[in-house]
Amino acid sequence: MHNYKELFVWKRAIKLCSLIYKLTADFPNEERFGLISQMRRASVSVPSNIAEGGGRRTDKEFVHFLGIAHGSICELETQLYVSVELEFTDFDKIDFVTNEITEIQKMLYALILKFDAKSN
User: Fold this and answer.
1) Which of 37, 80, 88, 113 is deepest in the core (most CB within 10 A)?
2) pLDDT band at 119, cuts 50/70/90?
3) CATH class, 4-119 region
4) Whole-prediction pTM value?
């Protein structure tokens, strides 16, 4: 088992959720069951999968859930660009968020490499 609460990537992913909830609060109300819901679920999925993997017994299982978290953050990044294209927000408002996403992606990838090497 891994103590996910001590992982900096988990802490940053929690903060990212807050940023996404605040950003999507300004989206059109008719999107609450569409893009808002998708983006919020994807953002929550990142720290949730880090935590779920951390609660598993083996490094191999941990890597599996880190991979799911990485997929979710890539999904979220895509949804941010869709929201700009639909003019629900603009690049100035998502710049900090996309930078955070890039850093979290790098951290997840580094953890995947580290624990994947240990489990082989």
Assistant:
1) 80
2) low
3) mainly alpha
4) 0.93
